[in-house]
Each structure stands twice: as C-alpha cells, then as structure tokens.
Specification:
About 35% of the residues lie in helices and about 20% in strands. Strands 1-2-4-3-5-6-9-10 form an 8-stranded mixed β-sheet, with helices on both faces. By secondary structure, the chain is an alpha/beta fold. The protein has a single domain, classed as Alpha/Beta hydrolase fold, catalytic domain (Rossmann fold, 3-Layer(aba) Sandwich), CATH 3.40.50.1820. It is globular, with a radius of gyration of 17 Å. The longest helix has 19 residues, at about 80-100. The two termini are about 20 Å apart. α2 (about 80-100) packs across α3 (about 115-125) and α4 runs antiparallel to α6 (about 185-195).
C-alpha cells in the first residue's frame, strides 16, 4: 500500500471514536472528511480512502455514533439525532483533520445519509469545506422515487420511527435496514423523507433556508442499479443548495466491474475515486 495509514482518537463530550485516515506519501492536494452511510462502520470505507490517497487526496473517515469505534451504542436510555451529529461530533472530526493537515484545502463528502448530513453541515458551517463530494446520496423524500418504491415509502417513514420508539432503538440488523439506530436519528431521517425538508429535533435552525446559502461546488456519483439513490433524489438534494457548479456522473456495472448498486462499489472503489479526482 503506497499510502500512510493513521488512526486519530477524537472525542466530543462523553463520546469517543477513531478517525480512520489514509494519507498520500507526498503532500496532499486536499483533505477529505468522509461521512458513512446509515449503519455502515468507518472501516468499510478504507479501500475508498486508500484509492483517494493514492490519487493525492488525504482521506479521513468519520465514525457515526453507535458504529465501529464509537464508544456509544443506541438504546432506550441513550438517544441522539441529527443535532448531536451536526453540532457535536462533526466539528470535532473537522478539528482533528485541520490539526493534522492545516494547510490542505478541505473537502467534505459522504455516502447516502452521509452525503445528506455533509450538505447540512455545510449549511451550518460554510467554512467547513471548499467543495462537496457525494456518492449514492440524495434526499429520502418519497416523491423523488419512482414507482413502485414511492407507493410504500411513506408507510416505512411512519412505521420505522414507531418501531424505534417502542423498542428503544431501531433493530436494523434484524429488519435488514441500517444498524442499531437511535430513535431520535430515525425520527429526523423519516421526517425529511415525508416532508422533503431537513430539520433536527432540538436544533433551532431552518436547515432548508441554510442549505440555500451553500455555494460550494458539488461533485456527485450515482449508480445505475441503485434503487436507494435514484437520480431524481440526488437532483432534489442538490437543488436545495446554490452550488456554483454541479458535476454529477453515473457509473454502470461495466465501469465499476461489479453491480452498480448502493453498496457494492465499496468492494471496488477505484472507478468512483477516478470520477472525483480525474
């Protein structure tokens, strides 16, 4: 591996986690803070981070609460939502990246929900990054999905928060969606899926209004066989911003060398890395 691996301890209040980094052997052209999808631990993005580092982009993979190296696990007496992720955890990871590479241009990006929260983070802190990178990401708003998915999505957005509230957390591994997720997080996600607007319980900010002030250029990749991230969903998310430029590219199975769906690219991420760097 022609990149330098690093594991950086980070904490925000009582929450501790490790920021997984892959650094170029030469001076990086930029630093990227990468936000995972719902229910996906940071370690699954290491091949992507290595591919980007080999192309000159120092990549730092954030760990969501409740996943991997996180010291917290969701439960009936331990809850969180978008507010804690956006205002507590992400600023701490951003500070760790800045301390490690203070001179490198800063990028922010994410996969699926990670891309959505990257957008929301820029809405709250425009200085956090100079550009936004998205993979298989888009608004969960039910109207942006084609039939038949759009027919049952509103039911899912009502049922899953109820289930998480009753159980104390969402049993994602049991039902095949996400991980063991905090019920506040599920409620915030489902609210945006039903309404098409972003909001966070306990956050006194109009996120949609703040998103309209985001001007950073956007680069995005979507996959042709990805029913979880259709192009209309990506278009709706990006339309909430005032991005100066939007470069959205689709990749198919031939380009990836495997099925072009929501998660398969993680096993062979070179084509995705090329789409951003070349």
């Amino acid at each position: 591996m022609n990149v330098d691996p690093a594991e950086i301890p980070v904490e925000a209040g009582k929450h501790r986690w490790s920021l997984l980094a892959r650094l170029p052997m030469r001076a990086p052209v930029a630093s990227l803070l990468w936000l995972p999808a719902l229910g996906v631990a940071a370690r699954h993005y290491l091949p992507f981070a290595e591919a980007l580092a080999a192309r000159g982009v120092a990549t730092f993979v954030h760990e969501w609460r409740g996943r991997g190296s996180s010291s917290l696990r969701a439960g009936r007496h331990r809850d969180w939502g978008y507010r804690e992720l956006l205002l507590d955890d992400l600023p701490a990871s951003e500070a760790a990246v800045a301390a490690r590479l203070p001179e490198a241009p800063r990028l922010l990006g994410g996969h699926s929900l990670g891309g959505q929260l990257a957008c929301c983070r820029l809405a709250l802190a425009p200085e956090a990054a100079s550009a936004l990178w998205l993979v298989a990401s888009g608004s969960p708003y039910w109207r942006t999905f084609p039939a038949p998915t759009r027919w049952w999505l509103p039911l899912a957005y009502r049922f899953l928060p109820w289930l998480a509230r009753v159980r104390g957390s969402l049993p994602g591994r049991t039902i095949g969606f996400g991980g063991n997720e905090a019920h506040g997080l599920v409620a915030d996600w489902a609210r945006s899926g039903l309404s098409g607007r972003y909001a966070a319980a306990g956050l006194d900010v109009d996120l949609d209004a703040a998103l309209a002030r985001v001007i950073q250029p956007v680069r995005a990749v979507w996959f042709q066989d990805d029913w979880l991230g259709p192009p209309a969903s990506l278009e709706f998310l990006v339309s909430k911003t005032s991005a100066t430029t939007v470069d959205a590219r689709s990749l198919d199975a031939e380009a990836l060398g495997l099925r072009a769906d929501h998660f398969a690219w993680l096993r062979r991420p070179e084509a995705v890395a090329d789409a951003f760097v070349n």
